[in-house]
# Entry
Amino acid sequence: MKKRVLLSLFVAIFALGLSAQKKKKYDYGPDSVTCVQNISLYEENFKMKAYKDALPSWRKCIEVCPKARKSFYINGVKMYKHFIKEAGEDSVMKYAYVDTILSIYDMRIKNYGQKAYVLGRKGVDHFKYFRDSNPFESYTILKEAVELGKEKTEAVVLSTYYQAMYKSYREKKVEKADLFTEYLTVSDYISVNIKSLSEQIETEADEKKKTKAEKKKTGYEKAKKNLDEFFIKFAKCEDIVKIFQERIESNPADFELKKKALKVMNRRACEDSDFYLQIAEAVHAQEPSHESAYAIGVMKAKRKEISEAIKYFDEAVKLCDGCPDEPKYLEKAGKAAIAGKQYGKAKGYANKLLKLEPNNGEAIIIIGDAVRFTKCNDGKAGNYAQLWLAVDYYQRAKAKDSSVSEKAQKRINGCTGSFPETSEVFMLGIKNGDTYIHCNGESTKVRTR
# Structure
């Protein structure tokens, strides 16, 4: 072991001598010999996970040459987390180690920058250890990290930031209205990353980079799911409407606030108030967006103004142009088209939705509904064939998407009650189980009551 350390030390000093003749790569400080000696000792012990043995030389490195290696700070956090684990939950030393970890993050920022990224890591660790005792400080750290990093902020940082913010709200240190507006900010940053990573995965030829992008995308998707579930738990529509109504009434010229209010109400599906339509129309008049078009479409549909609803849903889809809400808009448009007896249009929306989400049961049901209510006048069993084919779609919806099972089964029951009797199909020269070609060219099976 001693020979190994001495050999490593010799190699390190020799390398230092060579690097002095070339471009300077590391800052070994005024006492470069002491720095290199301690780097060698610390790194050798660290590699063998002998963290207690590595600690004295690591501390000396931090003291004499803090800018020599970024890994000092990365590995320092790793060592102290190991000490925390060994100390146990009830140990007096635990929080002394935690304070050291937080100081290491500060030293890393001082010597290597990357403030947004490192603050994010610091905030996540602070919340891990102080979520119940001091979440507001975690929130303060994470807020600065998100404000600096914006859409480049890591998924875990965005998710933890919102949790810390909610905990701070519970301690009456954050306003509820801020929870609503910050939800939009965090959600938008997550969506930007999911979209860009999806595009990278589609075009990436390097398998390692592709795998890395897929892993990152999964992290952001998990963060989005957690964020949405968390938001829905506490965000009540009456609170959302009340808070934004008060704010807008006190500052009616604040257009950005109106846009935020509309986005929050759309996300939480707060669609039953006059305020919702009022804000949607105000936003749409000044700056038409997919959010405002969708909101007006929803209210028109509720008022049975189906043609108008379809027009606005169609506009929402066009203005969306690949936005995260496109599946929702296509589904609403398809259902409105069914209600308006525009069955061809409904199938068009549903097929676009299936291109985005191949297992979307709602889209398959929309196609089933369109088939069921479109007359199939082939002079034979066409009026029955539309029921048979519709049932095929409803069964497919059940198989693909368990969330629509009950809805699909009700439609199946509604169709089977209108199936022909055996004698009726016999007169047409067909029998139960035979293949039958529907008017649109699709194949189905003959079924009787």
Summary: Residues 194 and 212 are 13 Å apart (CA to CA).
